[in-house]
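Standup, Tuesday
Yesterday: got the pipeline producing structure tokens again.
Today: sanity-check two examples.
Blockers: none.

Example 1:
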Amino acid sequence: MAAQVLDSFHPLISSWFRESLGTPTKVQLATWAEVMKGRHLLVTAPTGSGKTLAAFLWAINQLVTGAWSRGATRVLYISPLRALNNDVRRNLITPLEQLQASFARAGVSFPVLQVQTRSGDTPGNERRRMLKSPPEILITTPESLNILLASKGSRHLLTGIETVILDEIHAVAGSKRGTHLITALERLVPLSGEFQRIALSATVRPLETVAEFVGGLQEINGEYRRRPVAIVRGEHTKQFSLLISAPEETESGPEREIWPALARRFCAIIGEHRSTLFFANSRRTTEKVTRLINEEAGEELAYAHHGSLSREMRLAVEERLKAGELKAIVATNSLELGIDIGRLDSVVLIQTPRSISSAIQRIGRSGHGVGEVSRGLLFPTQGMDFVAAAVVARSIADGDIEELRPVQAPLDLLAQIILSMALTEAWDLDELYGFLKTCYPYRNLARGQFDLVIEMLEGRYADSHVQELKPRATVDRLANTIATRPALSLLIFLEGGTIPERGYFDLRLRDNGAKIGELDEEFVWERRLGDTFSLGAQVWQITEITHSAVQVVPARRTQQIIPFWKAEELDRDFYYSEKIAGFLENCSARELGAEFTRELRERYFMDRGAAEALERYLRRQREATGSELPHRYHLLVELYHDPDTKTEEQQVILHTLWGNNVNRPFTLALCAAWEREYGHPLQAFYNNDGISLLLPREFDVRALLSLVAPEQIETLLRASLEASAYFGARFRENAGRALLLPKTNFKRRMPLWLNRQRSKKYLPRSAGTRISRSWSRPGGRRCRTISTWQT
């Protein structure tokens, strides 16, 4: 089959492939077999299986043979990261140069094929040159594609597209960013006509849903039909080698001592390898671990890498590791996707990732070659972290990941999309509605919802004295058309997109104004001139704080504070949470001891230290409760009375294990039911593992859950959601996506608190319920009472 498929390429291309790369992988052969037939594709295969080259090679063949004319953009490659685009361009130019040399040796001319990137980092002169001389292969991001579509001068670049390659589709398909991307893809169709769609991913499920998302729909004689999308699965399951480990305990063994022990272990790992990539779950942990490693080593062994460091600093760190000048990087998910940082000897996960697919992506950064094993070390830091680590390890071995669910009909983004579409041409409203329904996320969009968004953009609510609700578009009711006001083009270009505004301060060097990174505004508010802090393995001293920036100079001090960023907490979905609860259910039903520890080592990939640490944790939990562990069918309720206060309240903790996606709405419903029943607000806190409540000491907690009946959930949520801090934060983000919170000056930072206040103008006044995302566990077992309920 390999010979037959390769023979379909130009003879010199097929011979180059055999000489340079050998035998094609099965996923490459299957991809080419479908691509040659013109079918739309979803290709899912492990990292290192050659799927990206497979997606490009037939397009290169068509350009080389003249099947597709040159001088226009024929191939559009879209990935979620600018840095990944630059890597793809470099990795694509290499085989093109090799092909050119191969053709030259055979005395055959090889056409000049331009490969260019287009993103927010592309200089203006390059963008103008691109318009005059379009590249045959254009590499871009979802945001830049939407800007091209909204620009009358740039749209001609997109009139001859033959193939669109959507890389790392799993990274966006489950979010509004995916909606932004896929609606842009449908907007290409009127410009280029039908084109081939090829989506690539290493970790995605369910395949059928993602295939439908990529394919979209076609309207044929008033009926909407899905475009058929073939699914190509990798020929083998990626081999992972994951070991869960724990540092040697100190003599006293308090939890606060785990970080110095981890730092010593990390330094040893770095010393044993040429290059090591550490992953942490937050920017703050990244900075903390970087500092601890360098302090332990007495030299700069590691450098931090996360989204709040400037692009220039991240790029410099990547290049230093690739060149062997830096031994280690400590990163967040900023390096989770396939950015080229050279060949990695070691990947270390610090604490368990919030999703199984994220763990797979991180470990997959090692062992990139075809058939290579991806190896990683995972270091949990506390009891429940060891439980989650065991669940993740077993799930990776079983190839079991969370399901991806595309967002359904987001109306905030719909407003932005309509404004963008109407910027370049007037649309008949009926045709616009029909077109939007060809996009998978809006396939079930109700006409009533569409009309309400149109009325908002038309200015129906302008008499509310809210300036931002004044007309954004011109609607001609007689002609039944909509057009965007030309003055809004700058707003769409500069503030369009889906990534929420966080109100960060720029961090800049005092001497030359070069941007170092970004700081959370609440962290800045707590600082004074002369304060020092650590960021990116460097200590900085504050010299000036302006309305939009913090100016600093390098300082030489140790043991500095580490910045915090408020928007870092990640929700654990119910699928992953259910696996954790299922693991604890299994642990509750069996004896702990040597046999259990042996199973943890053999089945859950733990070393002796980690297995014993988890066994001790579960044993302590049983001793504390006098009963079985919390799990799917057993709710553990903890009551705490603080002896040092005279308050008449008690803290009640529900160990639900449901994850924030369930704990958050349940907490809101519980608060609404409490206020309805007792006439005063309930103080409540939640995180991924449970819900904490402050209740009167005499209250019988057995009556707690009876307050919320299943059939009342929606009514209770409607009563409490609007007044919650969570709703306020999400509403602000949605108002921003709908372009209702424009900056008064695009060169100045818009404080987050001001955007919160501005977004409140769109809401009716109502009392709030005090709800927080997390809590600090009380100490003192002598004050703790445990109740257990079967559910």
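Example 2:
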Amino acid sequence: MKKLVTMREALRDQHLLGDALPGPSWSAWRTLLIAACGEPLTDAERVTFKALTGRDREPGEMIETLLVVAGRRSGKTKAMSLLSVFLSTLCSWQDNLSLGERGLALFLAPTERQAGVARRYAEAIVDHVPLLQGLVENRTANALALRRSIDLETQPASWRFSRGFTSVSVALDECAFLYTADDAANSDTELLIALKPSLSTTGGPMLLTSSPSNMEGVVYRLWKRHHGAQGDPRCLVVQADSRTLNPCLRQDVVDRAYEEDAVAAEAEFGGQFRQPVTAYLDRAVVEKAVDRGVTGRTRLPGVTYRAHIDVAGGTGSDSFCVAIGHKMHDAGRDICVVDALFEARPPFDPDIITKQAAQLLLQWGVSDATGDAYAAAWPITAFAKHGVRFHTAALTTSELYLHTLPLWTAARVSMLDVPRAVDQLCNLRRKVGQGGKENISHPRNAHDDLSCVIAGLLWRLTPVAARKPKIVSPGVFSNGQWWGDAAPANTPAPNGYRQGTEPWRSYVGSRWPGSNPFDREW
């Protein structure tokens, strides 16, 4: 890409882009656009730049990604349209495009109608400037064809359709409101994966703008990683309230919004991510427990490890997960340490994954583990084939979450740095049902497989669970012995077994085989 004129010169020249963002109210946006194009700022502009990005210096080169997290009516859509026009008309891409290839300046949003707003801004800027209007070759309902083999085009934000072309820029508006669930048909993650290769040939920028939503999805992850001085210089992240970027917005409108609903107004006009009021755990609490950069630990000699399993069948959307950990004493407190997390995402063969999970457990010296009552006795027989006893936990998943909540709030958890697990924990919701009973569950189209096994592990590591784990399992005869929990003292041993032997002690809390051997005793 070769600039025919700098962004600063274009914004000053009334015959180019000088009328697009005029006057003092657009000064903050002009500063951001100049910096995004890799041009130097003045000392006064750097003060504004630092206030908006948390960085002392501008990137010094054309950015790869620009993320603007700002309140409503802040002018972000129009500003990104102007940047797209600059890249399409006042920059040459001939060295980046092959013979017959046309570069696209794309406008996308959760709906095509929303994306059309940005393209209409861009088209109006082009039509306003006679010099730029002369570059127009053809117009359609969704595209504006320009000379130098560039098209300004609106497309639906779909990972299926965002392939097979070369882009000079991609403007994705209101991207915090795309689907974020991993199993969504058109998730934000899959969309960005599909879009990024289209920019690899030209080196054009990805322009992401949105008012903030919940603390989830690619927008929050990019903000978390790159906002401030610690971020990648070529990934510029801006966060601001509406009036900082648009001083013309009436203060009384903002004040009334805060009076009516302060939580909503903080996101809509304040530019701050929403902290769900019904969240099971505050994200700050979970992230405080995370050991940064530690995705797994090594087994320590002389340490007893526990495990909890969430079994899945290999179809559908649920994962097969295992959590392994131990308890340590530090500064007069017991700390529950998560040492290993295992996840197999569908599709998979449950027999193969069960074998892999059992091998992992035995590597950590764990010969028995707990899990939920999935598929009746199948997990017991499946794990017994590989030398691992599987017990069904008496607590439901929601009860596990409630039981382990004090461990998080008391900072007694040492968590692995696994973003998927952290997101699942933070996305859990608290709901009070009839009779005042509280229930913890994941939102619709979301998952809690990893968070479930972490809660189960913490339950196993708590003093009550370690002293008298409330686990019940039906007994299964496999590999020459009974697998399950040991029978009560007054229960006769089955034929061929002597009271006090290991098979006897391994069978607690379940009936000996009879008319229905898989019925629970308690």
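Quick observation on example 2: The first helix runs from residue 7 to 12. The radius of gyration is 29 Å.
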